[in-house]
TrEMBL record:
Protein name: Methyltransferase family protein
Keyword annotations: Methyltransferase, Transferase
GO biological process: methylation
Gene source species: Paracoccus versutus (Thiobacillus versutus)
Keyword Methyltransferase tagged: yes
Domain Methyltransferase type: 73-122
InterPro entries (UniProt xref): Malonyl-ACP_OMT, Methyltransf_11, SAM-dependent_MTases_sf
Protein origin, superkingdom: Bacteria
Keyword field contains Methyltransferase: yes
């Protein structure tokens, strides 16, 4: 279900700001190491699937990178209404954009409709404790210096919640897992520069519409260095990126089905007793 444009409830994402941030990242010379990690990880996962995919689509905010990573794929923007033809693809990848979606279930459901029966959906996005160090430093600094708080770091979904989106979107055999990437930076300001070059600056709809005060940033940098140093080099800071992978299949009669409740041939207690005897 798409958000109601007449609703008074504030949205999560300012799409104009997000588009500006992404355009600025291209001008800066984009930092894309997370996208490349995800692309390599997806390639490894596809190699384990005993199938050749011939009609691939990629949904992303970084189209050129993914055209290079997936030659021949149809690449579309992560707009609220995806430009995907129903039933046209045997593989749809939602690449590093789901975290900005106003309606993530709707995004996955649209991708699912674009799949052929028994087609594969894979999504990858930041989640979990991504940038928790930055959130901590900015929150503490702003509260200490100004006595208030404002939205600065995008809320990240937990793996359990993100995995639950798959069946809600109509996909079968759902699987969710994650990998963690730790990056090392000289300071909060160098991390901020990389985030801007990723196109991942603050595009929250409820963000402050004026530059952050310098004294807040300086205090946040000091708190970051004090509380989240790089264990390998105490003069640097660490930044956590949890990359969540979601996998599901378009339903098909050929797929394995769970047993009906009560259809087991042996009661659970008897099965456990049998196992204990064999140990």
């Amino acid at each position: 279900m798409m958000p109601d444009p007449t609703s008074s409830v504030p949205g999560l994402t300012d799409r104009r700001a997000l588009d500006r941030n992404r355009a600025r990242a291209l001008r800066l010379g984009p930092v894309d190491f997370l996208h490349r990690i995800v692309a390599d990880e997806i390639e490894d996962r596809l190699a384990e699937v005993n199938r050749r995919f011939s009609a691939v689509a990629v949904v992303t905010g970084r189209p050129q990178l993914w055209r290079d990573a997936m030659p021949g794929a149809t690449v579309v923007a992560d707009t609220p209404a995806l430009a995907l033809e129903p039933g046209a693809h045997d593989l749809v990848i939602h690449a590093m954009a789901l975290h900005w979606a106003e309606d993530p279930v709707g995004q996955i459901a649209q991708a699912a409709r674009a799949l052929r029966p028994d087609g594969l959906f894979i999504a990858a996005c930041p989640g979990g404790r991504t940038l928790h160090e930055l959130r901590d430093a900015l929150t503490r600094a702003e509260a200490e210096v100004t006595g208030g708080l404002s939205p600065r770091v995008l809320p990240m979904g937990e793996i359990r919640d993100l995995g639950g989106l798959l069946p809600r979107a109509g996909l079968a055999l759902p699987v969710a897992d994650q990998i963690t990437q730790i990056a090392s930076y000289r300071s909060l300001f160098h991390l901020g520069r990389d985030l801007r070059a990723m196109g991942e600056g603050n595009a929250l709809a409820q963000r402050l519409r004026r530059p952050t005060r310098r004294d807040v940033l300086l205090r946040a940098a000091a708190l970051y260095a004090e509380n989240h140093p790089d264990p390998q080099d105490g003069t640097r800071i660490r930044a956590t990126f949890d990359l969540v992978f979601l996998t599901g299949w378009a339903p098909d009669a050929s797929q394995q089905k769970p047993l009906r409740p009560g259809s087991a041939r042996m009661p659970l207690a008897e099965a456990l007793a049998s196992t204990r005897k064999s140990e």
